[in-house]
């Protein structure tokens, strides 16, 4: 019997045998690992948190897709690497996505379409987005089994290029293009606390202080006794922010910009360090100095730590300011402040692997809503990575690596009368890890 049909493609032969390819196989999906994220989303209820903040203007009798279902579909699309809402036209029939949205793989109705998703993204107003931001902080606090003794918050901003004439877009001379510059806050372990869309300019002290005041107020509603340590780059070290930290009893370690008065404090140390390096050249020589300093705009003197570095590239001196009283300056700089750089990797993962910079809507509210959705997708992957074995490399893997190995899996999905059976390939290279994760995320069985 000739199996060559118009639906099959003929490839190069192997061992003298004809190789045919077709798309007429069983009911399959290429994103079967999405069910891992489904279990996390069902347990954490991220989509429900956002949906409770939005007032649905539709007539209840005509609603086919609830807001929670639309939001969940969009979050899972982003997590699976489909940041473009147009992909919903194909994914709405995918059996894995239908199962993740609590619909039967074959008999269940199709999921929502791209226009429905776009309407959802444009639905929230400013008050709704504020409520969503509070819900994200509440979710962050409830992700801990108990109130921690101390948390570290890394605050930074990142540039998002604009796609056209969009609200809040602004020309940034450093990046030489129009865009946005949202403020993003992560904690020391990589949890996303919040993200706020804003124009592409360096935030001023009053703006930063107002944002931090609102954030700290929300966190302390849940953790009134938890000690909070802030870390940030030098442009967050403004008089308003420093006074805010003093007024709210916040600990801080901020970068400090260079100036001539600071340079005078370390001039002898720079000279002696350069002489020592000249006598015995090596890779790098670092020395530290702690002293008290007060800028003209500061309300009081503060502790400053200078790091003097000499190498074959020349001299490099950096400064940080802190209100931490104990600890050596070397330890505070190397172990505490330098760890702030990990927040940039979190931002990179959020933008590069989850396309959080896809702020292409014309309205600012819709783009802020997208930051919320991409933030929820980040939480799904962070939670899945945290469920991996502690000493395995998967505990530190990038999101795109986890997605490639754990989500992009081919599977046959068969719906029967009382069961839905998912069959993964017997030669799946990550079988042991997938089994461990599915068991760890398995819901409790009924008694």
UniProtKB/TrEMBL annotation:
Signal peptide residue numbers: none
Domain Transposase DDE: 12-442
Pfam families: DDE_Tnp_1_4
Top-rank taxon: Bacteria
Official protein name in the record: IS1380 family transposase
Organism of origin: Paracoccus benzoatiresistens
